[in-house]
Amino acid sequence: MKPNLFKLATSELSQDSFIAWLLEWADSKNSQYNSSLHRVAQNFVRVLLGKNDYNISQVKAGRHWADIDVWAEINNEYFILIEDKTNTCQHSGQLERYKKLAEEHYSEKSIEICLIYLKTGNESKANIKEINDNGYKIVNRSILLNIFNDINVNNDIFNDFFDYISSIENETNMYIKLNNITTFWKAGEGFYLKLQELINEWSDWKYVSNYAGGFLGFWYHWTNVEDIGDIYIQIENSFEYGIKLLVKIQNWNPELDILYKLLDELSPIASKQGLIINKPSRFSPADTSTVAVVQDAFKADENDNFDMNHFINVIHNLEKTLDKYSKSIKQKNENGT
Q1: Of 63, 117, 306, 333, which one has the fewest beta carbons inside 10 Å?
Q2: pTM score over 0.90
Q3: Three-class SS of residue 313?
Q4: In CATH, what number does 5-172 get?
């Protein structure tokens, strides 16, 4: 395989440099050096600004001004602030802080500020909503690929970056095979992204570290059980040890007897929904604990094609199981039985 600079230089600092470099190519004076790269760069700036026909003549770009990853001034009319991410997420109120810094800096100038959250890795829809709420425009990998696909560019640096993010896109879309989901990290993320499209309620996913080496987790459908706690649905993809669909509990008084009671009472309700739930290898009362493992949730055909329809049916039946159990406990309490 042809060596690729960005498969070695995978840090956000390297990506910052590429984005600032690409922005500089949008300056009109750089057309003479590589006209196709210049046109792609101008299209990139127009997408950031949301102005398809905007005439770009002057671009000043750089990195790490006041902790802002990448910035650019366009025609002395716009200031583009880019929070650039590969696989990490926004944190510590940084988006609001950077926005405030830019607004204060340009408070006495007639320059419009454009806030961009640029992400080449994958990110949960729950995080994306929070970013939008902060006033940032999301520019994700798919948007970049659409821009880069439009014009053929003869430049090794550009094409290395293009090939690199294309490989991320390809691996993310490999979730159609069950073995890929449990083998390749990006395919596991791709499965969760697709799942977020298919379920009609709030969900989230991210890496969770633990003593066993951690896992890529997905969770949703919190259901309160009166006088006990909150039960919810979780997927654990540890890659090394496989993938599991679980019923979890939190906000409870951790006791072993409660876990046995929950499993005993949930099992017949699950059975009526066509599900078999089993005890985990051992019960471990803690802040969050596993109540049950759902049997045969992940299926594939003879060619390892993942049966997404079967899985969606399983989790919908698991939702019904938790809801029916919560309702039954509430009714018992109301009747004093």
Answers
A1: 333
A2: yes
A3: helix
A4: 3.40.1350
